[in-house]
């Protein structure tokens, strides 16, 4: 029997690459995006069903979840929708910081919450979330983005215990810099006092320095969905692996000094 994956944020990047990969592997894919009518690629592929979903819309989460479940069994929910809010906290409006947490954190929580009763009753299922190396390490000029990803870390680890009671898994994918993602999905809050720091950090994370493609991260999502392991975190991308290993090796304070040095040389 074909397995089915439900994906949020499938319009670009990792979400779209994952939808394509799972469809190619013979899975049924329910790919959700805010404007499915504007999609011109996934709608042409076999095994893919498009549905509308804005993860900040609580009523639409309920409606789309029920509609997806009415089509048949779902085996994996991939919470991928998100974007990066960059810039100094002082420059960030209240609306911007609320929107960042509503999308990156509460959107994941609410979609997961909507599917838990179904997975609990069938005593099977897996949630996979797109986290980030920025959920394992804090970086400059991205405090609210990092906060949203760090929140996912604690939430996932805690939730893993209660889901395990019913044979349901939860895993987090932790990529580093992924080509095309930063420029296409970022909101930048600017402030003259922080222009230099922002420019230095953006120079360090330009897409041409990306260690991974969306397709490579999609392969890790597939691995997480099919390896049968209870692994909580999948650190992926050579940049993320290197930086995280360095942080664990040298400790928090020495790692922060290293980031300062990196920016000084940018």
Automatic annotation (TrEMBL):
Cross-referenced SUPFAM superfamilies, in alphabetical order? Answer: NAD(P)-binding Rossmann-fold domains
A Pfam family per the record? adh_short
Q: Domain of life of the organism in this record?
A: Bacteria
Q: Does the keyword Cell membrane apply?
A: no
- Enumerate the GO terms in the molecular function aspect: oxidoreductase activity
Any idea which UniProt keywords this protein has? Oxidoreductase
Q: Which family does it belong to?
A: Belongs to the short-chain dehydrogenases/reductases (SDR) family.
- Official protein name in the record: SDR family oxidoreductase
């Amino acid at each position: 029997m074909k397995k089915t994956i439900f994906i949020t944020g499938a319009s670009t990047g990792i979400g779209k690459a994952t939808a394509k990969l799972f469809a190619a592997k013979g899975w049924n894919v329910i790919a959700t995006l805010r404007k499915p009518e504007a999609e011109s690629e996934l709608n042409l592929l076999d095994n893919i069903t498009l549905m509308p979903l804005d993860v900040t819309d609580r009523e639409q989460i309920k409606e789309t979840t029920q509609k997806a479940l009415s089509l048949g069994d779902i085996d994996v929910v991939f919470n991928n929708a998100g974007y990066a809010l960059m810039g100094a906290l002082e420059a960030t409006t209240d609306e911007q910081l609320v929107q960042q947490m509503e999308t990156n954190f509460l959107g994941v929580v609410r979609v997961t919450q909507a599917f838990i009763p179904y997975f609990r009753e069938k005593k099977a299922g897996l949630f996979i979330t797109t986290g980030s190396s920025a959920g394992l390490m804090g970086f400059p000029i991205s405090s609210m983005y990092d906060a949203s990803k760090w929140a996912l870390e604690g939430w996932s680890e805690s939730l893993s215990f209660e889901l395990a009671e019913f044979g349901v898994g939860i895993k987090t994918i932790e990529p580093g810099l992924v080509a095309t993602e930063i420029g296409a999905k970022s909101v930048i809050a600017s402030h003259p006092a922080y222009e230099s720091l922002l420019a230095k950090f953006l120079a360090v994370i330009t897409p041409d320095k990306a260690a991974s493609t969306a397709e490579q991260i999609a392969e890790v999502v597939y691995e997480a969905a099919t390896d049968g392991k209870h692994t909580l975190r999948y650190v992926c991308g050579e940049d993320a692996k290197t930086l995280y290993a360095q942080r664990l090796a040298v400790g928090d304070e020495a790692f922060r000094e290293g980031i300062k040095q990196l920016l000084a040389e940018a």
